[in-house]
Structures are given as structure tokens and as C-alpha cells.
Amino acid sequence: MLFLATTVVVVLSGAARGQDGNVSFESVSAESVSGESAPRVSPAENLTEDSGAPLRISGLYQETLRWSATDVHLIAGQAEVSQAGQTFAGARMAVFVTETNEGFDTAIYAEDLTITDRNGQRSTGALSFRLESTGVPVFDVRESTAAETADQPLLRRALARLFPGSLDEPRLASMQSPSDVFSAPVPAVQPAVESGSRRVQIRPRSNDPLRVESSTNPDTVPAERVTVITGGVNVLVDGLDSQVEGLNMAPGLIDLSADRVVIWTQAGESDALEAGTTVVQPADARFQVYLEGNIVIRQNQNVIRATHGFFDAAGNRALLLNAELRAFVPTTGSDFRVRGERMRQLGRDRFHIQNAWATTSPYGKPGYRLQASDIFVEPGPSAVVGVDPLTSRPQVGGSPWVTSLNNRFVVGDIPLLYLPKVSGPAEDPGIPLRGITVANDRVFGAQLDTVWDLNRLLGLPKQPGLRLDLLGDIKTDRGVGAGVEGRYAGEDPNGPYQGGGRIYYQYDGGLDNLGLDRRKLEPDDSNRGEVTWRHRQTLPGGALLFGEIGYLSDRNYLEQFHESRFDTEKDVETVLGVRQDYDAWSGRLWGRADLSGFEANTQWLPRGDLYSFSQPLFDGLAYWSSHSSLGYADLQSLQAPTSVADPFNPAGLSWMTDAAGVVAMTRHELAAPFSAGPVALEPFVGGEAAYWGSGFAGESVDRTLVNAGLRARMSASRVFPFVRNALLGVNGLAHKHDTMLEYAWTSVSTGLSEIPQYNEIDENAQERFRARYSQQIFPGVIPEQFNPRNYALRQGAGLWSSAPFHEIADNLQALRIGFRDRLQTKSGPENAPRIRDWMVWEYGATFFPRSDRDNFGSDFGLFYSHYRWNVSDRTSLLTDASWDIFDNAGAVRSIGILSQRSLRGSVYLGLREVEAGEYLKSQTAIGSYSYQMSPKWISTASMAYDIAESEARGTTLTFSRVGLDWILHFGFGLDFSKDNVGVGVSLEPRFGPPSPTSMASLLGLQ
């Protein structure tokens, strides 16, 4: 056993100590500068294969300086040099570029190097070499800065290897390279010149005493002291200076534990190592440790376990066998694990592991993992996050960055995918599969939907703020589909930006099923899909650039394949514009085009808008608001579907027609608010001049408008501190009441019936529905009581100075009255109660003096009521209603109860009633719940039942199993409108422990 330990000690110590040799750095100290010129060419080995090929050099961060006629680049983080099929990749590089008569001579010193050429791939510790090129070497470094000092460890090691015997010291020079917008800037911090000291303490790992044997080996030069300690040893090494991206970091503490250790120090340099004693050494003094048996190494938030290991304190390096690294990932709050046969610690938070696998799962053998021949772990692009205000030293933060080679993605013990190279942050450890869903229903048949990380598949480095996915789907009753989807966000010198896009192709060999009366619709073409992109960019001076591209292959593609997006997201459109805000002014210049050609919309070619908001006049006695607009509009009506089985009636959108021409308007309003006792009064008067180049009759239309009236508001409150009821959860009451009143008189020169609706009042999904229900619900024509323009007119929706649809105005008088009552009470602990709403009731109505003209003969209308009773902090009773009282009026009423138990779940039960005069009466019972049944299981369900028709409308049920490796969803759904039954299974990898946000998302909580 002793012979075996001695053999391993010799091998490991020789490998670790042989990287630096015995190079002296004193020749480049400030005291030894002689001013002689540096050698033009380094004597290092020339590895050039083709000097005519371009020489490319890249990395994360560099410091630049000048040495005689040579440009010096000190590169840290993912340093790489490539030329003519050769690639040299390392953690750090010193690059010396000298112009010669034949071109350029580039001398390179690299550490932790991996070489890839025609002979394959091999790794080495440190290497000095030369490359020649006829052209200027091309540098692609994310962040560059001029060096603040020439006394840097990496530079001294490079000079000793590349230019031995050189006495000329490089001088500082300002030489900057373009920075990459995706990389956080790294501060240039003055490295420490003094070497500092190191403290070493030996103590037992348990209560058993240590057995220490120490001897001097005179056969080495200089002589060394060898100390063998057994019995369970704990070695604490404090004061380790470490390097991150070329900067000296604050000294750290490393904790070494093992059953047996062998320690080498220089004889006579320090006191003997004994249990319980503390030895102080110079920071560059020799201190090397061999460890064996139950090894545990702790440094910062990293923990390493191994069977055999060797540690060099002078270089803060280690070599370990059968090792596992656990590194804390701040963004997920969990550990990232790497296990391999051979692990080298190359510096602070820098590791190279061979024949290894990586995972974020805490299991000993995880359900999924990434196996690789080589895994490199190092600080991410933003490793240096700031400067410690107390020590003025750099602070290290951020997530570890992982690069792995020759990867296999393994689930269980089955390899599913091979990737040559993966690089990214540890919280996204290179697993290319983002999600997979298997389902079956009557609309699409059997389905397999997958989402892949495109960066991983292509072996591209992950860019902060960018997500790029590859989508691949198979639907047996329809066809195959594939596409790319991406999202991005970041900040450049102009300001923040964000956006996203999707390109997707779907081959469809089936029929569309969109619901009752539309179950068998033949698509226009079997080749279907979409191209969408949206972008927003903040510009200097408060300006905003916005743009969209939107193309759909046909009118039913989005509703069939992405129904949720069709129902809830904004319209797919093509827009380009810029907006500038300044104080109370806002201007916008923009244009919109229709690439699809089948929706009802307006193309603006282009349009400009100018707004002002509450500009004070006459020392604040009055306030002026305005909106002026000018543009060329091309209004297109909704195109009829190509399938005769698709219900369509153009009378459903009678306010939209084919028209084109100039549209101009300017609208202004003056308001003079003042108080009369407890009442706040605001008389106002407004006017508008508008022009449309084409009306319903094809001729131009102009209009003048006058709008005047009075707004009033009165607030009152009263406190009842002694009203208490434990059953009702009342601990004192405060009643707050608001009365709101608005009288408005509007007169126009041209009626609304002569003006097309250039500015849409509905989105595409609602417009499609209106084109159908005119014959599905109504007798071919929508009655005036249910015309949305008449409803908006009675509400006064088009009379604001900044109203988005200024067309909606006509002769009208209305007195709108509203009330808001709020009862508040206290809840929570007695020493820290909080105020909460107990009951809130908002209600009101509108009086029409000329009801025959304005409200279908009824003096009062537009009644509304919104009531919420928060029975407790978790449970609320909700009621909502809006109705009119003229003949054949519409009404919407609902009542329900909602209970939410934080992250435990929620339940809702309600009844909704919809009436459209004599044409429609619907009563629907709605129920939904989500519940965390256990730490691993979550269930959700919803149901809708039409009481009036005595039939179910739809049901869904989902179970989710939250595992440490995967989240597995089982779903079942019934859609009676489409006569569809479906089941599905969805699988998605999980990284890190569950967070409140992720659990709320699974539970559907807001």
C-alpha cells in the first residue's frame, strides 16, 4: 500500500509541478528595465502550416499594451487561435504580434490548451509557439481595455517562455477593440504587486489523534521536506491569491480533508507541520499536498469529492481522480454537478474534467445527463461583477460557464443524441431538448411535438438574452411541420431592445375543424405556415423604434393550429414606425402593410400622429390636450372564405368597406378644473376638424365636431372603528364613497353612417366572429342595438382627445352617473395589521335626454354593476352585470366564487348568463380548479356546461408530476363544439428546485 501511494504521489506531483518549470520572472521587473529593443521574432517553435491563410484570434476579455514594435494582447476566457484547420483553445493566452518584411509574426503563450488539427484533439498544460501570416491577424474579443500595469503574472510567464533573457519591459498603450454588446463590461482593476502570505493549519478530521511522520529529502535541489499524516486529516490553506480573467482576486480559503495526506514543502523555509499548529508562508512558497481516501475539498461555494488527489497551493491547482464537483448556481438556487474519471483544477473556479457527465439533478445517478469526453467549467462572461469597497479588490459572481466536447445526451442509460460541442451557463447545461408532447385527438390524429435548443444542436455558444428554438411536429391526420422560434432582449449603446419571431412551415393533408358549422373546411393549399417578427428598440432622447413582420398563409391557419394565440394575442401585422416622447408631447410616424390580404384592416402608407396631454394654460387655470393625425389609408373589407362551408356574411361588418384616400384630423380640448367645496368640477369644451378621402359612397367626407360638458366628482369617507365580527372577518370598518358625473353634448356636421371605420375597433378574431354570427344568431343583418359602433357611440368611447378611433362620434347628449363604494377593514397579526378591501361595489347608468335619437327610446341605459366581497384573504364572491332596458336589449351577468390558497391551489365556481334580446339566451355553469395534491403531483381541471341547452361545452383534466429531473403532464380534453376528444402527454426537463414562480405557473395562479 505504501509503495502504491508513493508511486501515485510521484506521478501526480510530477504532472502538476511540471507545467511551470523553474522559470524566473525577475527579468521583467521594473528594476531591471534596460531600454533595449525586444527581439523581432520569438525562438518558439513555428507551427504555421499555411501563412497565406487568415489568422483569427478570439476570447472574452483582453488587456492590450505596447512592447517596442510589438503589440501585446493578454486574453482571458475562451481564448482561441485558428489558422488553416488548426485550432488552439485555452483559458488564457498572451499574444505578441510583430510586423515583419514577409507579413506578421505572432508569438503565443497559452495555458490549459486544447489543440485540434488533422491528427485529432489533444490537451496540454502550457505551450509557447509561433504562427506566421501574410495578412493582419483578426481579433474578435468581446471586451477590450488598455492595461493599467505591465506587471502581470500572465505576461511575465509569457515573456519567460517566448523571449527568454529579454530585459525590455512592455509599456502601456491605449489600443481598444470593438466590444460585444452581449458581454457585460469587466472593470480594469489594478492588480496587486505584493505577493502576500499564506497560512496553513493542520488538524484532525475527527476526535482521533493524527499520526505525523516528517523527513527531509536531500536528493532534490533545493532540499524538500516530506510530511506524511494519517488518521483523518483536515488541512486549511488561507490567503490564496487567484487569477480571474487576468486579475488578482481577493485571497480565499480552501479546506482539504482526506484519510491520508502527503505534504511537500521546501526544507528550512517554514516551521514543521504539526496538528493544531498554524504555519505562515510566503504566498509563492512551495506547498503541495497528495490526498487519498474520502477526499473532500471546499473552496468558495464549490465542493469536490474524490478518491485520489494532488493540490498545489502556489498555483491554486489540483489534479483529482474519480472526482465529483458541485458548484452553486445563483440563478437557480441549486447545485450543478460534474462527475468524471479525472479532474484538473486549473485555477479559481476553473476545472477540466475528462470522461465525465454533467447534470443539475441532485440524484446520485440522474435520470438525464450530458456525458462528454471533456468538460470545462469556468466563470461566465460576467465573472468580475464589481469591486469590493473595503478591499478595492475585484469580486467574482455569476453562474459557472460549461463547455463540453464529444457529448451524448443520455436518458436513463440510453443515449438519444450526439453533439460535438456544447457551451453555455450551468443553469442551462447543454441539454438540447426543451420539451416533448405526445397527444392524440380527432382533429390532428396522433401527434408528436418537440422543441429543441437550436444553439445546442449547432454547437454555438449561448448568447445572453437570446433564446433560439427548433420546432418539429408530426400530426398523422394532417402532416409534418417544422420551424424556428426565437426571443431576444438586451441593451446596446442606443438603449434596451427586445423582440422575437417565428418562421414555421406546416404541410397539411387534412381538413380544418374550427367548431360547430365549420368542422370540415378544406384549406386553400396544403402548404401552410407563418412568418412573424416583432421588435422594439429604445433610442437616445426618449425615442422608440418599433417594427413587426406578419404573414399567414391563409385565413384559418392560425385559428386551427394555434387557437390560443388567435384568441388572445394581438393581430399578426406588418408595421414599422418610430415614436418620440418629450415632456407632455408625443409624436409618432409609422406605416402598416397587409401581407396576407384576407383580413379586414387598414394599410397606412404612412401616417403621422402628434399628441399633447394636459398642457397648462393661464397659470394652470386651464389645460389643453390635442391629437392631430395625417396619413394615407387603404381600407380593405374582410375577404370571403374560399370554402363555401365556412359561414360568412359581409353584413356582419357593415361599417368596413373598400376605400382609400387621405385621412386627416385635428382634435383639441380645453378643461378648466376647480373645486367647489367637497366637489371637484371640470368644465370642458372640445372641437375637431376631420377629412376622409373616401366615404361609403366613394366621395370625400369632411366633418366638424363640437363637444362640451361638465365633469364632477365628490368623495366622502367615514370610519367605524368599533364594528367587529370574527365570523365575517371584520375588524373595524372604513367606508369610502365616490360619486362621478359627466354631462356631454356633442354636435357633428356629418353623421357616423357616412364614415367608414378606418381605425379598427376589434381584433381579427372578433371580426371573424361578427361576420358569422350575423347569420348564426341574427336574421342575416345585425340589429342596430347590437352594432358595436352604436354601443361605443353611446359610451362616448370616441370622444377622448386621444381616442384610437376618432370616427365614432355623432350628435349625442348623455349624462353619465357612476358610484364607487369601498368598505375596508384590518387583518393580520395584532402588532402589524394591514388594511384590505372587504367589499367593493361599482355601479352606474347613463341618462339620455333625447332617448328616441340616442338610446332606442329608453331614457336610461348602459347600466352596470361590479361587486366583489372578499370574505377572507383567500375567498371572494364576485358578481358582474351590464344591461339595457329598451326592447330587444342585450345583457351580460355573472356570479361566482373564487378561492386561492397561495401556492396550494385555487378553485372557481360560477354562472354566466348572456342575452341578446329575442335572438339568444345562454346560461353557462363554469368550474375550474388547480390543486397541489402532494409535493410531486398537481392536478388542474375545468368544465363548462350550458344549462339552457342542457349540454356540456368542454372539459379538460390535467395531472402534472413534478420530479427532480422532469415535469410530466398527462392531459385529457373534450370539445363538444369540434366533436373532439383528446389525450396528451408532455415532458419537459427541469433545472433546479421549484420556485414560487414556477409553481404558480403550473397551478395557473395570477
Descriptive labels:
1006 residues, single chain, 13-stranded antiparallel β-sheet, mainly beta, 57% strand, disordered N terminus, 26-stranded antiparallel beta barrel
The percentage helix is under 10%
Low-confidence stretches: 1-39, 171-195, 241-251, 383-394
Spatial gap, N to C terminus: 64 Å
How much of the sequence is in beta strands?
over 45%
Provide the gyration radius in Å.
37 Å
What is the tally of helical segments? 9
The total beta strand count reads 49
Structural class: mainly beta
Q: Given the C-alpha coordinates, what overall shape results?
A: elongated
Mean pLDDT over all positions:
83
How many strands, which pairing sense, and closed or not: the largest β-sheet?
A: 26 strands, antiparallel, barrel
